Amino acid sequence: MTEEQLLHMLMGRFPPHDVPFLDAPSSESPERRLAMVLSYCGDGFAGWQVQPGRPTVQGLVEAALGKLCDQPVRIQASGRTDAGVHALGQVAHFSTASRLGLDPMAAGLRALLKDQVHLRALGEVPPDFHARYSVKAKTYLYYLWPGAEAPLFLPNRVWALKKALDPVPVQEALAGIIGERDMAALSSAGSEVQGTTVRRISSARLLVGKRGMWRVEITASGFLRHVVRNLIGVLSQIGRGDLQAHHLHEMLAAGKRIYAGPKAPPGGLYLAQVFYQSPSPGFQKGQT
Fold first, then answer.
1. Residue 46 in 3-state DSSP?
2. Is 23 in the active site?
3. What is the pTM for the complete model shown?
4. pLDDT tens per residue across span 135-159
């Protein structure tokens, strides 16, 4: 099942999006607020956020929109993805006075973005919609392959591990993190967080494919920097027997990293879906 779903993703079949596009365009305001659903492979970018002299997703999309709208355009995303991290359903919004129609704008974006970023959807949204601040939850996926014999073609897409991992304690560890949890223990040092570090985890599960590929799926009200990659690193230790499930739970309760461990590489991480209504967790075959 995991491998089949990965193939669907590689063929461009993505989870459904949750953006509240308007059925009819608004003509009252001189500016429109538009939103996009984007997918991209992160290994060709230095992350989402604009960085001088470096290729970024935001920089590429803003440059394309600037040409189409004939004015500078600043876009706001649901959140930043780091260098090497992929997106199946990143959401971003922007405001523009351009009256270019949605269909020609979408066609122009796809032509300018080429194969670097895929525009899944474009439409007008309510004026108070914000790609980041309107978010109710997000789902991240992490793909890893324990016991991969010859991982020649897996780098930057899946974390291949030479040793086998036991899924049972990993599933136990994930089952125990559902609910309100302080994610400070899994956040990388130096992360800037405004307000609480507590997040609500509504779903956390491991699915093991017939050929041994793992998919860890986490849905939460929000994520701190590197939380998923650090969590996967801890889970790999639990799967090897170096740690037990209760060690993860102890760290979350303490709000600090009691047990040192690796951070999983970025290439296995995918921002799958952003929810603006009540989340229904799960990787689903859906809209393109």
1. coil
2. no
3. 0.91
4. 999 999 999 999 988 777 788 899 9
